[in-house]
Amino acid sequence: MSTWIRWNEESKLCRQGQLGEEQKVTINSIFNSKIGAEYLPPEHKGDIPPNVEGGQLYTGSCHCGAVTVALSCKPLDEFNEGVVVVCNCSICSRNGYIWLFPRPENVVLSGSEDAIGRYTFADGLTSKTFCRTCGINMTNLRNQLSLDEVRALSRHSRQVYERNKESHPVNVRILHGVDVGKLNKVTFTGATVMPSTYINP
């Protein structure tokens, strides 16, 4: 039996109360968990975006709560069609993003400037936002380029930059109460469709 399978089985017994205290300590310490502590998703404390007709409000957060998000969109359930995307580009595959593409006015990313980190690479068109404390990846934010910077872009990058004005992508994994496994997801082959100057280290 592999170590991972053994841990999984012992974790089930731990939840069922069938392990001794010493074994419980061992299992919980593997994942740096506090015994008996229930994780409560942090509340969104920022502004609330305007309603979307036929939609609903969703909130989400990083793990520690320093950065939160609120968005209005069509219901995210097993009946959604083509709005949730899994991309295979270098950054999305590493971070396990699952993207939703609401319009910018329907998204509020909340947190202090010190709390929100921004990772920019390649052509610098967007920044992947994340919490500087717990590291959770939040959204994909369009960078504000100067006119000279836009003119210096390739034709393809300029088209992508203009298209990015239409949405503020949100990582669905951070949304509270959304069962990602039930969502209909579309695969986007970003690794080939969006050629990048990025080279794997």
UniProtKB/TrEMBL annotation:
Domain CENP-V/GFA residues, every copy: 58-201
Record GO terms (molecular function): carbon-sulfur lyase activity; metal ion binding
Membership in a protein family: Belongs to the Gfa family.
Keyword Zinc on entry: yes
Keywords, sorted A to Z: Metal-binding, Zinc
InterPro entries for this protein: CENP-V-like, CENP-V/GFA, Mss4-like_sf
UniProt-recorded name of the protein: CENP-V/GFA domain-containing protein
Superkingdom of origin: Eukaryota
